[in-house]
Each structure stands twice: as structure tokens, then as C-alpha cells.
């Protein structure tokens, strides 16, 4: 199970969302101790904004890797650097490389970003969002067989419909170039989609990027607490008839 430490959330989400390299390293260590086997994070400027800065990426990765033995990945979301050419230049300037990086396939320049990452030896998580044309674009992509995995992202935040949206997204993905699929939801859809991933035998993720709440609606205190709850819910779904 992957832990998604922070996402684009900032200080307004509360102190439990790790924003500094030190806070991310501590939260990652706690989550791995709770059972997380992979990490996804968003490097942040001192003001808490997502960034692809080589310096910030390096400092963040070094801090986290000093505390955990598992793979560590970052975002390449267009909001971090809206101009595709500038985004490519930032990525090519990285001096410390993540193990993997997510690339949102519906964003302008996605294939160029994915190709640059592959050339650098960085695994690509192909982010396929519901409600976009990403699945169709990915099906046509010659890079499909070369990605590390597909990150099937259910953007439907309604608890009563997120599972149906997830099933439709998976159907649209089809064989997904034969790559492994990690299925996850967000906010109100996070827990229903996590349980569906368990029933389908798919990898999943949970963390303060995807939800600030526990399954019972109470506020989550940490990424480690979400991982503990996530492993329980995912495992229970796997064992259900």
C-alpha cells in the first residue's frame, strides 16, 4: 500500500499535513512503520506550494530516504509548473532522482514528461483521472508498455457514486498495456474506492493527500493512522466473499 503524504494541500489543511522535508520524513517513517510499502509526496516551497525545483526535490528526497527503505515518488502535476517546456526543463535539471513520478496523462505535455522521466531512469506512474480523456490517450500511447504502473484516480468525491465511477474508469482503461494498476479515490470517495480495490485485488493508496478523514468520519491524526485503517479496510475487502 502506498502512502500519499500531502498532495497539493497547504497549511490551511492543518498541522498534521507534512509540508517541510523534515515533516515529510517523519510522517513517511511513521507510515512505513504502520505498513506502507511505497511513498508518494509533493515537494514544497517554504510557503507550502508544490514545486519541481531541483533544490527542493533533492532536499526532500534526501530527508525522506534517510528515514525509510521503501521507494519514494513525487508529483509532476502541471500546477507545479504550468508551462510544459519549463516543466520539462525543471525535471531534466533534477540532481537527485525519485524512484518514480506520477504523470497526469490528460495534462498538456504529459507524454514528453513521461519520456524525459524514462530517459532519466525514473519509473512513471501514469495518472489516469476519471472525468478526462486520459484513458483513451493512454490506450494510444506508445509509452504505455514502458510505464511502471497505472495510477487510476477516481475524482468523484461522492461516497455513493465513487465506486461506480471507479468501475467505469477501470473499464475504460481496458488492459492498460498490461501494466499494474493502483486504484484510489479522494475525499468522500477515498474509502469506498479503497475497499473496491481490495475486492478486485488491486494495489491502492491512502494518506492525507487523498483524505483528511477516517472511515467513520472522524478527523485523521496522521498518515500512519490512515495507513493502519487502510490496510484493515483493504484486507477485509480481499477476504470478503
Topology, pairings included?
Layout: E1 2-4, H1 21-34, E2 38-41, H2 54-65, E3 72-75, H3 84-92, E4 100-104, H4 110-120, E5 123-129, H5 134-140, E6 149-153, H6 162-173, E7 181-184, H7 190-200, E8 205-206, H8 223-239
Parallel strand pairs: 1-2, 1-8, 2-3, 3-4, 4-5, 5-6, 6-7
Count of discrete alpha- or pi-helical segments spanning 4 or more residues: 8
Structural class: alpha/beta
Radius of gyration: 17 Å
* Biggest beta sheet attributes: 8 strands, parallel
Architecture overview:
The chain is α/β, with parallel strands linked by helices and 241 residues long. The chain has one domain (2-239): Alpha-Beta Barrel (TIM Barrel), CATH 3.20.20. It contains eight helices and eight strands, in the order βαβαβαβαβαβαβαβα. The chain has helices at residues 21-34, 54-65, 84-92, 110-120, 134-140, 162-173, 190-200, 223-239, and strands at 2-4, 38-41, 72-75, 100-104, 123-129, 149-153, 181-184, 205-206. An eight-stranded parallel sheet has the order 7-6-5-4-3-2-1-8. Helix 1 (21-34) packs parallel to helix 2 (54-65) and helix 1 (21-34) runs parallel beside helix 8. It is globular, with a radius of gyration of 17 Å.
Short description:
With 241 residues, this protein is α/β, with parallel strands linked by helices. It has helices spanning 21-34, 54-65, 84-92, 110-120, 134-140, 162-173, 190-200, 223-239, and strands spanning 2-4, 38-41, 72-75, 100-104, 123-129, 149-153, 181-184, 205-206.
